[in-house]
Amino acid sequence: MKQTIESYVADVEKQRRLYKRTLVIVVLSQIFGGAGLAAGITVGALLARDLLGTDAYAGVPTALFTLGSAGAAFLIGMMSQRVGRRFGLATGFITGAIGAFGVIIAATAESIPLLFFSLLIYGAGTATNLQARYAGTDLANSTERATAVSIAMVSTTFGAVAGPNLVGPMGRIADTIGLPTLSGPFLLAGVAYLLAGLVLLIFLNPDPLLVARAIEHSQRTKHQTSLSDGSEVSDCRGVYVGAFVMVLSQIVMVAIMTMTPVHMRQHGHELGAVGLVIGFHIGAMYLPSLVTGVLVDKIGRDVMAIASGVTLFFAGVVAAYAPADSLFLLIIGLVLLGVGWNFGLISGTAILVDATTPETRAKTQGSVDVWIALSGASGGMLSGVIAAQSSYLMLSLLGGIISLVLVPLVLWYRKHPVS
To answer: Domains of the chain, with CATH numbers?
Structure first.
């Protein structure tokens, strides 16, 4: 393996071929991963409501699998730092598949403890789906990093959009084989996550992170500079700002998204309509990525981070004041929510990657994704409580207003660049 990696160090053409091949492999795995991701988002809250008998805790499933993704993000980051992206990402997806199958068993047995535990394990797939975006950046140069992230993310669209729209058919399949209707999407998730893990395990070789690390080691040795001990990154402030952009985008998006299916069901919308709205939302989270990545690389990380805050604000306003029986306006609100999250995640990721080196990158990225996951868990948990104590309108409006914090933060960062 070491010989294989070393052969890429001095050969720029081989590096470019590996970069393109890595993107293809990540794209394929993300198509499957996106389908797995959609199950918990679409029916997780509805499944909890049925088992618990109340809407007040409908945000618990989102909180649990997001909390599970926090622990998984840290472990995957550490594992990737030690042995590379290949084994780290493959392990995460396969663990998520085990969690999805556990949810099916829990729903069949009507076991709330098993459901909660399985949702925690299922969160590993969510964390891996998110961390896979970094794999494409390892061998990308500074002018194409956001585009590399966007290629990985846009590929998720195919599975992520198909997933919610397969809620009805998968529910019928579950009925046919004697499983609870709402467990059907988790059957899809288990198979999809398993396939995503196998694609990475089999084909992501040589590992792009290990190759990037060997290239940097060679360059530093050539210039007679000492290697980083892994305790520092080149721009701590960039790490903090990039992380905050992603964290705030995540907490607002998860909070509003989590309670939208419950809000719709309360006002008589069928499960198919819920799947349609969430499908548009997830499509908006990932489909704009190719354009977003180019914009982030061309017009700047800071401009697109500000655009994220403004877009999320309008998403909250539209979702808040959309009539409950207006499927069209709910779709518009959730589409804006997805686009705002997309802007925030890609611009924040680019800021973070710019601020790290291959020696510290995977560990730092994993640590940041822990905070992204925890923020999502908080958003999911609090969303049900806020909506139950006040209203969906108040929840959405509050999320939109909080998003505007990104504007002064990024303007401050822009005026105080690293010297």
So the answer is: 2-413 (1.20.1250.20)
